[in-house]
């Protein structure tokens, strides 16, 4: 695991050392640089040694120095890829470095090499003969790669802050990205929060031509929603179990100790069980919880203990207090690079784990594979409503009920057409309905996200956006033509929330503590297996993970199998009204917002004051705005590239 930097052009390459220094947290074990004066190409890396501890130094070259690479990630099937390359005559300098496997695989196959890889990766290759840089990112987006290209040259790096170290890169806010962020709590897509800095999308490669300065980007992988296989449920249960077991086994590849985060939920509990089934020995597990007044609802320590006791793990627990969040919040913002309004407890889990291991497995990605958080339910209910209520007037009434947070089916049952059926007959009838009308209508985005486009324009964001958030999401859904609503919504999550929120946060927070995080549920072969299951079998609207539960039932304490999902989060609602209140009142004050010219001053009266006073619950809206303001302080007002020394207490005073 590493942090990587690649530059082209003298103005960029002269900053190579300074850029690489900003990534020390990603790789404290080793560092290296390569410069080619003839082409003004520079490569640099910081290394966290996981495989081939002695011989894996980067940048690494092939035998004649015609190809150089910097690589961030792990190739889990590198032990299988190496023997054919040796048989083909490629000389290896290392005993089992996956970086060297990438070098020789590129020599043979160039872009086609990506089809061979199972792992998480972002890498840049300098191909001297073809006079180009070749970069790629893994299929699902576990490892990041930012880039910028212009008259001054080209630069790419693992983290955005490295590109800010270039003197010609301006810190101009991307108002379109901010507009989407205020609805989603993360910045989606290829555009970053800064104009002129972009992300290479997951499942894509990039080529930069040293002669023409042309940037070419192409997709090499996408989620297949069309190909389905017909098997009995029992067969699918067996295949899911075997696929997940193999995914966990692959992620045991390491020359250093590994551990596992344990949230108290189904996904992480299954991984702990499968580690034991794969012969991992006594697994180290790590959990955090909350024990303050009114915080019991957020505390999952008792469930995590059940799993730890079931498998006899070496279990570690940490109880988190609000003051610790205040102490760490500015550091989190700096490590995240971009505004992020989601949950933060993983920071403490990874920090806790890093005290005794360098590799940690997590349950990230299980929800997207099985049920996508039930986001499809409103869509399917709307399809049913269209069948039950053919008149426009009735359908408009149903839409109004949905906008107010009600269940369409509940209101149908209460007296709209079709409700005369006995409950048992109605359920049997509903189970047989075909919900294949298409993914959704524009209307049903509105109640599902934290701020609608209309509200943002009226009382939240001052700047005008080129594209509404609804348009962004519907544009992505257009690629799912012919797919069911369940598959379409899963696809949307794999294109937005999973890579741009959950995997982004996992990468930044684990790397902040020099820990490599691995997620078995986002193994691409496992994902492809799961999506070959017909969606009516894969996902039950009444029990989203029913099929997964059957596959791992013997590994899970019975109390966890039917426990409600509570999410891995901190009690932000309470803390905003307590320890974080002075910060919110300072950074979201109307006068400050008016002077800043980004968020509207009306936001305070509409959202902040009612939440702080306990008159309404606007946790997500206030938290998103507060985290944006902290980001603005660090990256715009203070113009930081290196980690800031000040705390939120100083900001709030």
CATH topology of the largest domain: Glutamine Phosphoribosylpyrophosphate, subunit 1, domain 1
What's the total count of β strands?
Answer: 17
Number of domains: 4
Helix content: 40-55%
CATH H level, superfamily name of the largest domain: Aminohydrolase, N-terminal nucleophile (Ntn) domain
What low-confidence regions span 5 or more consecutive residues with pLDDT below 50?
Answer: 401-448
- Radius of gyration using CA atoms only: 25 Å
Architecture per CATH nomenclature, i.e. the level-2 architecture of the largest domain: 4-Layer Sandwich
Q: Look at the helices and sheets and give the structural class.
A: alpha+beta
CATH class categorisation of the largest domain: Alpha Beta
Going across the biggest sheet, name each strand in turn: 2-3-1-9-8-10
Please count the helical segments.
Answer: 30
Separation, N- and C-terminal Cα atoms: 39 Å
Query: Which descriptor suits the 3D outline?
Result: globular
Provide mean pLDDT, rounded: 87
Assess the beta-strand content as a share of residues.
Answer: 5-15%
Biggest sheet layout: 6 strands, antiparallel
